[in-house]
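Dear support,

I submitted the protein below through the web form. The confirmation email said the job was done, but the results page showed an empty box. After a refresh the structure appeared. I'm attaching both so you can tell me whether what I see now is the final result or a partial one.
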Amino acid sequence: MFSDADAAALYDVLSPWDPGACPADAFYTALVDDADSVLDVGCGTGAMLTRAREHGHTGRLVGVDPDPAALARARRRTDVEWFEGTAADVDRPEVRGGGEGRRPGFTLATMVSHAFQCLVTDEEVRASLIAVRAALRPGGLFAFETRHPQARAWEEWGPDRATTVEDPSGRRLRVAHEVAPVTEGGVVTFTTTTSSAGPDAAVLRTDRSRLRFLEGASLDRLLAGAGFQIEGRYGDWDRTPVTGASREIITLARRPA
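What the results page shows now:
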């Protein structure tokens, strides 16, 4: 058996939050450490906010994710607030907070680890951006990234790039991807197959995912339509500009004061 809980635990093995080794994690960690209240949209297993609290962050930290199994792992940390929901749900009063002398809303909202690409239609993007803007205080910052379509990252996800790891229960597992042709609108559909590793390999689980690879101009149009002002746009985690060789579109968008 390979349960949803097993899949969530495996994610932490495959994608640990490590600012010392991963430039993307270091980029977001610096933003979180400097913000007095943080909303992580698509928080997954909560690794980023957990690390922030462990390293002394004293402000309000809130994670939102639609995956109950991932949230179950996140909720092992009880001094961070966790809510089940999508990006379009984050303007709910219980998420925005307030009361007891606290201002409602957040100074920083994030969508890390390419979570923004899970929004595959313009309607999903618009609803999510409007909700995130509403969850921010005036002057608040929204930080996220999406893979630049020019880099064609999906071409690197074939079965020949399979990963073999040991999960927290000690099982050796093989994780492989199979990518379908890119559809109109830059949407990539792929399957992730988790199998036992070794001579008696057996498929334990197959998951289907869809990601959207947005061009910068389309992204800017959607941000402007939701009332955001772009403060920073980078092609790499060292804050260098977007070029013809960039693999990322990293965006800092501000809710006007």
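Response: this is the final, complete result; the empty box was a page-load delay. Helices lie at 4-14, 23-34, 47-54, 68-74, 93-96, 122-135, 216-225.
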